[in-house]
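note to self: dont lose this again. the chain is below, predicted strucutre after it. 309 aa total, dont forget to put it in the shared folder this time
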Amino acid sequence: MSQTDEAPRTEAIPGAGLRWWTELPLILLVYGAYSAGRLLAGGNVRQAVDHGLAILRAEQAVHLNFEHPLNRLFTREPWIGVPADFWYASLHYLVTPIVLVWLFRRRAEIYRTARTWLMTSTVIGLVGFILLPTAPPRLLAAGHGFIDTMAHYSSYGWWGDAASAPKGMGDMTNQYAAMPSLHVGWALWCGVLLWRHSRSPYLKAVGVAYPLLTTVIVMGTANHYFFDALAGVVVMAVGLLLTKPVRLVAALLTDRAYGVLAGAGVTPSAPQTPIVSGECQTFPGERIPRQRKAARSQDSGDGAAAPAR
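---
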């Protein structure tokens, strides 16, 4: 059996090194940065309104103005509008973590890639919020024909009439963080992973329906323009392209951090996992796997019986 010069790293083993107590703080850190970034990206209100109107005019110029008919439908029919508001206010905070936990427990071999994709795309979205503050359709002047369905149906839910935040907390969220739509982006992330990695046909159907329905709902509730939704898709595509480089950079930084710890006399807590093959145990950095076996035979002396295994 041929042996390679270097022992494979434990990262090549599916799920090696995954620990919930290291993953959870990392995800909470990114979510905290997302929430703080939304608050810091308020921008100038006049500028945000101008950006919103520019997007609306661009859509009308290419005859892609889906927001008006959907918003009228959602406002006229409470049986559509109220569930849509619950969907918009809640599901991206529920479905996204559920898919992450599912990947962690059932698809550990792709978890790190999927998590990095989500986090990278979220950071790109935050840059969009900062550089392009945008007033959603519901915050435009009444003459533009949009009704804020969450304000319209606020008596049905836990949200207030100022935003999709809990009642009385509308001032604690940035309502001009509309471009790109991370509601659509996160839903697309969930949908792609469910479609590609679920074995259940029902979950695959959910993977198709969830991002499509979310796109319709963000427009019908007057929280996003169609171009916001398209931008959310683009952000996720760019995040996917950057996932591999980001992982390589993260691995490099981790290796350097371990090198610094080793130089300071601190041993990393992660155990070294032996690779067992051909009656030999090899460890990272050991170049001749059968060296230990030969040394053991020499130590036993000529003609002496080898120790029992």
